[in-house]
Amino acid sequence: MKVVLIKASAPGDFKDYKKTRGGPPQSIFSAAAATPDHYDLAMFDETIRAVNPKKIQADLVDLFFSTPDAMRGYELAEAFLDRKIQVVIAGLHATFMKEEAIQYADAVLTGECENVWLEMLSDAQSGQLKKQYQGSQADLAEVNPYPTHLIPHSDYDGIWSVLVSRGCRHKCSFCLVPGMLGNTRYRPVQDVVDEISELETDWMELHADNLTDNREYALELFKALEPLNINWVGETTIKIADDPELLDAAARSGLRYLLIGIETPSKAALKYSGKGFVKAEKIKEQIARLHEHGIIVDSAAILGFDEHDTGIFKESAQFFHEVGVDVCVPVIMIPFPGSRVYQQLEEEGRILAHDWSKYDGTHAVYTPKGMSASELEKGAEDFYYRFNAPGRYMARKFRQVSQLGVATAFSV
Ligand code: SF4
């Protein structure tokens, strides 16, 4: 049976954001890793290039996408169904909008794929797909390494991705991780090391939603990675900066670029959204410690919390610049279906649009509390120009050159 996995991605700001912040997407690579060798497998990632469904031959197409790409995903699904090819829709959006997704597919697979993947493939092979496959939390000691022969490293600018953990102990109101993946689970350290040792690239994303959630695991992992001489990108909370031993170990193991959810200078918004552990007054000092270890800091500025009014754009641009964030893009809060904030906004009748293509971080798809939707959209643009104003840009580069070196400063 010819099986085709596609990460659907529509052109737009969300696609550009994903492209700059990641290597291989977890969804299709996890599914590919779970597919036995006797299936004839092909894989396409539209974050890299769009596919033409008319040119794809398959017995089964599995489509994965998140909310901003749902319309593109459904367009592809219809094109394959028209050709009598079996279609399964999986991934984040389908998990939380399964009644919608099933209208465009033979079956919907919700949650993590591994525990139901073989059953689904076998049913497809016998032409007997069920309407729904409900995945559950995978045992990460059982997952296979990501295949490297289906999409080359070079398509991801040489950055590869290795799964380390899934899930997070926190429950931020705008985040889908708690609902999709639950609490943090880790792969065995040796499995991660073995997979990295086989790779041809020395730049990679260590994929985790909250990498240092378990301090003892993280210390063991970093120690094991040190001899491999790799450079890595990761995602964790700012709390890593308060733990000198952990931070030293991370830097020695190759941490070069850290994604951290600082989100907003508003203490009230941080507290209400479940990020009370981010202390705005401590951020400058914490980021300075990361810079001392040669680590680039990337955080989005989320705009449009209920605690925000029109003063937030100027305040945020100043804050993110002054605390030393190296890379920062404005994101209008996206109320993803499945998140707490989506449920709240729906209950309050404040969702303005169900056109998922607008859930891309540049559109206000809900009525904000402290301003109008158009003020929010205009303010997000205003943030971008303020944060990147020539004076600030030059000051940032000057600081980065002195703290991180010329090459690193001009790589971001
Ligand atoms: S800390 Fe990060 S991964 Fe965890 S729930 Fe909050 S936003 Fe999501």
Please, could you describe this protein's structure?
The chain has 412 residues and is α/β, with parallel strands linked by helices. It folds into two domains: 2-134, Rossmann fold; 153-409, pyruvate-formate lyase- activating enzyme (Alpha-Beta Horseshoe). The protein is built from 17 helices and 15 strands. The strands form four sheets. It has a six-stranded parallel sheet, with helices on both faces. It has a five-stranded parallel sheet with strand order 7-10-11-12-13. Strands 8-9 form a two-stranded antiparallel sheet. Helix 13 links the parallel strand 14 (301-303) and strand 15. Helix 8 (189-197) packs parallel to helix 9, helix 9 packs parallel to helix 10 and helix 13 packs parallel to helix 15. The radius of gyration is 21 Å and the shape is globular. It binds iron/sulfur cluster. Iron/sulfur cluster (SF4) is lined by residues 168, 170-172, 175, 177-178, 209-210, 237, 261.
Please outline the helices and strands:
Blueprint: E1 2-7, H1 13-20, H2 26-33, E2 40-45, E3 60-64, H3 70-82, E4 86-90, H4 92-96, H5 98-101, E5 107-110, H6 114-125, E6 132-134, E7 159-163, E8 165-166, H7 177-181, E9 185-186, H8 189-197, E10 203-207, H9 215-225, E11 231-236, H10 244-252, E12 255-260, H11 267-273, H12 283-292, E13 296-298, E14 301-303, H13 312-322, E15 330-332, H14 340-347, H15 373-387, H16 390-404, H17 406-409
The structure holds iron/sulfur cluster.
Iron/sulfur cluster binds at residues 168, 170-172, 175, 177-178, 209-210, 237, 261.
